[in-house]
Amino acid sequence: MPKVTIDYEKGEDLNDVLDLCPAGVFEKQDDKIVVAHEDQCTACHACDGTHESIKVEDD
Ligand code: SF4
Description:
The protein has 59 residues and is mainly beta. Helix content is 7%, strand content 27%.
């Protein structure tokens, strides 16, 4: 299963990943984008290809 991590220290606007991710991995909780369904990630790299604060490690 791919591992999806977010580095919040970079302060990047991540709101668009809610629509960008085809697998519904991200959710907005308390005004913060979080990795809610990592098990659904298909490692398409749409998110980490466009956001330097997101990292997807294929296994
Ligand atoms: S790699 Fe693709 S499927 Fe996985 S979290 Fe990023 S956008 Fe979603």
